[in-house]
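Lab notebook, bench 4. Still working through the backlog of constructs that have no structural model yet. Next entry is a single chain of 208 residues. Request: give me the structure tokens for it.
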Amino acid sequence: MSVIKKDGTSLADLEEKEKNGTLTSSEKIALQTFKNLNSKFIQSVVNTQKNLVNIASGIKIPPLESNGPLIDTTWIRIESEKRAEENYLRRLQIKKLEAEMQVKEAGKPFFDSEISCIYLAGKLIKITKNTDQFYLCKTILKNEKSMAKEWDRDVLAEKLGGNAESVNWHKIYNAAREVNKKIAVKTSIEDFFIATSTTVTINPQYIK
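Model written out:
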């Protein structure tokens, strides 16, 4: 209950007295002042809502009623965050669909580092981001030239964040093998990467 006079008189008391026509001059002024302030506050909230709607496209904010309770804007922030996440996931889904179409049209594999997926034989193979497998795919599957290249272990070691001395060759070999396993689960391809003791290449039959 809102108290708007020092003697403890509430808004409800004044509204009741207004209905009964028993308001004093000072009470009339107090009540009118409160109504004016409340009206300005509600208009300010409405304007804030409109700004939030422009920022968070698509969020439906229920209209305020002039005589209704003051709005709690916490839910607006929560809805904005939810909608931002939904929009991000939707963009990823669109990107995947576009990539699938590109695979069907081009028939060649490629790696999308943004969503960390290999597109091969009409399938999407997820690779965990910021891992040895991720950096291996990002390096070798960068473009047609890089896919046709025979990659020396020293160069790959640098791409994995080190050098030939600090990066054990087994680390690179295991990354290639694990990617092959993931590809085999989604496709019939078991030998996409060919790893030797000194190099890693893509099996030529899959990039023709």
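Notes after review: The longest helix spans residues 74-106. The longest strand covers residues 117-120. Flag for follow-up if needed.
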